[in-house]
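Students often ask why inverse folding is considered easier than folding. One informal answer: many sequences map to the same fold, so there is more than one right answer. In these notes we will look at a single instance of the problem. The structure comes first.
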């Protein structure tokens, strides 16, 4: 059903069309600036790789630094669509994310920065919690703003902004637990000279 289509991240084939809509999960909207020419990017290939449980190494991060979206799209299961939609609208606003597509009748919404939804929230049973999602930030100040916004939105502290040198020397992030126990992170990997000045107190 809709939950499986929205959140079925292990599939190798393109995800099916969502009922009554002209886009599939991961696709760009046809009314986007490119007129939908990049629709084929909706294919997911995550099923080929063994899931990684660790965070990115500094080497792989350096190689990918020019990539805007480190994650293509990811989905979390939530208990109450309305509550969680409000939470993410507030918590991700500092990062420039908003709801780009909402399937309220199916209790699912896709967030993104431009025309492509990359982060999905969907209500479904059985509820799975504890999903971890890390959002890339352009600078350390945005990590701080995410943390403040997430806690203000009712999130639970799971680690204030700061360096996590056990991941790598420049791994600067913050963690918040969302209303359903999912572990949400905002992170920047760039050295401080490439970021935005000294680490905030
Ligand atoms: N409270 C920790 C949270 C660390 C955390 O959640 N790390 C992510 C990976 S970047 C994770 O899923 N870790 C697995 C775990 O904590 O079991 C902190 O502030 O550093």
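Output (designed amino acids):
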């Amino acid at each position: 059903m809709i939950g499986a289509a929205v959140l079925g991240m292990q599939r190798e084939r393109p995800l099916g069309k969502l009922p009554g809509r002209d886009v599939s999960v991961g696709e760009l909207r046809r009314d986007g600036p490119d007129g939908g020419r990049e629709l084929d990017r909706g294919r997911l290939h995550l099923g080929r790789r063994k899931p990684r449980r660790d965070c990115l190494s500094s080497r792989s991060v350096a190689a990918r630094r020019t990539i805007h979206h480190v994650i293509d799209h990811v989905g979390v299961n939530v208990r109450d669509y309305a509550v969680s939609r409000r939470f993410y609208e507030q918590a991700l606003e500092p990062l420039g994310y908003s709801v780009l597509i909402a399937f309220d009748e199916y209790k699912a919404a896709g967030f993104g920065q431009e025309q492509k939804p990359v982060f999905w929230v969907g209500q479904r049973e059985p509820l799975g919690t504890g999903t971890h999602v890390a959002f890339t930030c352009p600078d350390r100040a945005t990590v701080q703003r995410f943390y403040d916004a997430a806690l203000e939105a009712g999130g639970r502290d799971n680690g204030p902004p700061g360096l996590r040198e056990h991941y790598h020397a420049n791994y600067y992030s913050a963690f918040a637990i969302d209303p359903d126990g999912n572990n949400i992170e905002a992170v920047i990997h760039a050295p401080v000279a490439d970021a935005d000045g000294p680490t905030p107190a």
